[in-house]
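To the team - zinc ion complex, inputs and output below.
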Amino acid sequence: MIEIIKEKYRQFQKWQQQPYQVAPMSEETHQCATCGTQFQGNFCPRCGQSSKIGRYSFKNAFLLFLDVWGLGNRGMFRTIRDLILRPGYMIRDYLQGMQMAYYPPFKMFFLFIALSLLVETGVNIRMEDRLQVAQEQFSEGMSDSHAKEQEETSDKDEEKKELLTKIDNVSDRVYDWTMKHLGLVSMLGLLLFSGPLYLFFRKSPAYPGIRFSEFFVAMVYSMNMVEFYSILSEFFCLSMVLEGCFLMLIVIPIKQLSGYSYWRTLLNFFLAMIVFFVFILAAIIAVFFLISLFYTS
Ligand SMILES: [Zn+2]
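Output:
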């Protein structure tokens, strides 16, 4: 019994590493319904119309409906399946040129962010606006902590109180802005973090000489995988802690792509995080230094 499971797992691993295979072309000739050209294959060489277009069916209509949002037929479902079952190997295949087989990474990124906002603001099993709840909790927490601070400083000057309300307003505004530009903010965060991460993966055994641009695309696909799981959990209104755990899954694609062991991948992540925080700290200190220079002069 254990042997059978082991054998199945071996077969699964082999399947994981094998690139997607396009079905062989049929010998059948088609006549294009638009321009009348006779041809073999899936698309008319003259005008580009698909040879599969025939009578309308529900499947056809559904695909056209998806096409409105640019989902169409470009391997969306294959991409999601592969992001779940073989993310790192799929990213390797994409980077090595199999671009028609997979949904484009950046498009998917913004699509998932839009979908996630939709799910968070009501399209879930409880029909609840979870973003609103989170925001209320956030501003409550902020005003609580400030109320405490204000109590403590009640006999001090009014100026400080004013400053605290100002900080409160700014933090509220920052929160709103971040929520409105979630795609941009997460893309920037990803770009910043993939810098230090690249330092530790640029000499990967399974993908030697990977470029930063390629590594960044790999990170975008990996985040798409994480985002897919978190959209699912948001839809079923699972706990927010779980969503944090999904972020840990990012080691799976990076491990598969780089060819390092899980431990080595985790270690590299940890080291990159240290570099990242040192960098952020240095940036904050630099900003404070500049501000103090500005005020003392
Ligand atoms: Zn044609």
